[in-house]
Each structure stands twice: as C-alpha cells, then as structure tokens.
Automatic annotation (TrEMBL):
This is Flagellar biosynthesis protein FlgA. NCBIfam families: flgA_cterm. The keyword Ribonucleoprotein does not apply. Residues 183-245 form the SAF domain. It comes from Acetobacter aceti.
Length: 331
C-alpha cells in the first residue's frame, strides 16, 4: 500500500493539472469510492470547483483501496492552491475503486444461447459449478463475451470460455458445468428376483435425470416384457438391456392357439408355430386345417393374437413338413 501511495504521490507531482487559483476553504474527503480510472482532485477534497478539478494520477485497481497520508495531502493542497484550514498531521484519505465481480447471472444467458446452438433442448437443466468470476472496474465493465463453448453431449458436461474488457485490459476466464434433462425410462416397479419373467405389471415409467441414466437404459416397456432377469433387481432401478435376457415363450413347432378378433367377433383356432419368439414378438403360425400361414403376436406360452389386416398366405411343402403336417396327395 505504501508503494502504491508513493507512486500515486509521484504522479501528482510530475503530472496532473498544474496550478489552480485559490478557492473557498476546502474540506478533506476521508473516504471516496471512485468510478473512474483516474484519481481527481475532487476525490480528495470537498469544495473543489469545476475549473479547479483535474486528474492527479491512476486510480487503484478495481476493488482495491489507496490511502493518502497527511504529508501527501498537504503537498497536493499546496501544489494546487487548495485552501485547507483543517490541515492536520493525522489526516488521511482512503480511495476505493468501485468494482463489479462477474457473476453467475452475467454469464448464464450466454451459456444457454451457446448450448442451444449446439442442440441442447429448451427443457434441459443447465448448471454452472464452482464459478468464481473476475473483478473488473464497475464503470468500465462491458458485458462478458462468450469466446467459445465446448460441449460433451455424451457426458452432459461443458466448458464455456469468456473475455471481458475493463480499463483497456481484456481478461479471459472460463465456467464449467453440466447439462441434464428428464428422460422417461423403464424402471422396476417392485423387487425382481433373478430369473424372473418380466411382465407389464413388474415395470413402470419414471422420469430420470439424464446424468444418472445408465447406458443402454430401456425406454420402451415393450422392449423388455417377456424377458428374464439375469440377476436380482431392486425396486425403482432403471432397467438396462444388460440386466435381462431374451426367453422364447414359444418354440418353433409348438402347438398354439390362434386368437382372431374382427368386427367384434372373437374366434380361436389351432395352429403350429413356424418361428420361435419371446412375449410381444411376431411369429408365423400355420393353421393345419386351412393350410394357411398367418402372422401373430405372442401373448403367452400358448396363445398368439393374429395381427389385424394381415393376409394369410398358402403354406408350401417345406412349411407343412416343418409343422409336421402331411401335404395333400394329388389324385
């Protein structure tokens, strides 16, 4: 501080305004907050007229203070013809440069716009972690400028790089943070035991923070219904494809019941599966009586619901033999 005050005093002696005409008695301003880059005579004394006022030297750095001691104040008053009747050896003046610290609110609009330009949705949650912005002169601080933003979409992380100009000096700084959104994923409704066949009642849809969503998470219940758990799973755990394995409820060649619904009518017929499949999957089924092949969705281990709108196709010799049905003999 003494070194700063010395340089300031030297600047007052060699620079600034030369001499001024005496004016009415002035009084010392013991504390002043500066909103300009130069210390002015009126920052030290009250009662300075406009034609007397002039720059004395550089102001302290933003947020910093400078104390002017009694000898320095006396020398300044004498040099510039200030009538200071209260001159005292104990007098001192403290000058503080007004400052502004770049805050979270200053940079968030820029981060949001930058991330949206990279494809981040409006519904995403953007968080800045452990941000500490630079301190700049309050009167000269421009708005921060976003120089670049690096976004890792796979891990939901970003780094934003900024610059801000103050006192003809440009400072660079960065802010790091995360991007998350709420994703609808399939979770276990209750505890599931190892080897359990998953049914619709065993799962539910829950909104999960994308940052905690596991890789290969199941988003559609249809992708997991009818599969078997590889291990025990606790309730409310997000399910992944690695937690389950596909189990064929119906094996190729197995007898099944065809459920046919049309125009309010419900009919059943016997059939033979031409494919193996898990619950919810579509397979080809032969109707041995009509010798026609239909496509249906597996309901359980014995039933297949014929897909509405599909057209039955005649079975060829290979299909009939695969189903154990004797082909008709030509007469």
């Amino acid at each position: 501080m003494r070194c700063i005050a010395f340089h300031f005093f030297a600047a007052c002696i060699v620079g600034g305004c030369l001499g001024t005409s005496s004016a009415d008695a002035a009084s010392l301003r013991r504390t002043s907050v500066l909103h300009h880059p130069q210390v002015r005579l009126s920052d030290l004394f009250n009662g300075i007229t406009a034609d007397q006022d002039c720059d004395l030297g550089p102001a302290p750095a933003p947020g910093q203070s400078l104390t002017i001691s009694a000898p320095q104040l006396q020398a300044i008053a004498q040099q510039y013809g200030i009538d200071w009747p209260e001159m005292s050896e104990l007098a001192q003046a403290t000058l503080t440069r007004a400052s502004h610290t770049v805050s979270h609110d200053d940079i968030m609009p820029l981060i949001v716009d930058g991330l949206k330009a990279k494809g981040v949705s409006d519904s995403a949650t953007i968080d800045v972690t452990n941000f500490s912005g630079p301190t700049v002169a309050a009167e000269l601080a421009n708005s921060p400028r976003l120089s670049n933003i690096v976004y890792d979409a796979a891990h939901g992380r970003f780094s934003a790089f900024f610059s801000i100009t103050s006192d003809n000096d440009t400072q660079s700084f960065r802010a790091d943070g995360t991007v998350s959104s709420r994703v609808e994923a399939v979770t276990a409704r209750t505890d599931l035991s190892a080897g359990q066949i998953i049914e619709q009642s065993d799962v539910e849809i829950a909104e999960i923070d994308s940052r905690s969503l596991p890789a290969r998470a199941i988003l559609d219940p249809a992708d997991i219904i009818g599969q078997s758990t590889r291990r025990a799973i606790r309730a409310h755990t997000p399910l992944t494809s690695e937690m389950t394995s596909r189990i064929d409820l119906i094996e190729k060649g197995s007898p099944v019941i065809l459920d046919v619904s049309s125009s309010g009518l419900h009919l059943t017929a016997s059939g033979v599966a031409l494919d193996s499949g898990a619950q919810g999957e579509r397979i080809h089924v032969l109707n041995p009586t009509s010798r026609m092949i239909v496509v249906g969705q597996i309901i359980d281990r014995t039933r297949v619901a014929v897909t509405p709108g599909t057209t039955p196709t005649p079975a060829d010799f290979k299909d009939l033999r695969s189903a154990g049905v004797r082909p008709q003999k030509n007469i």
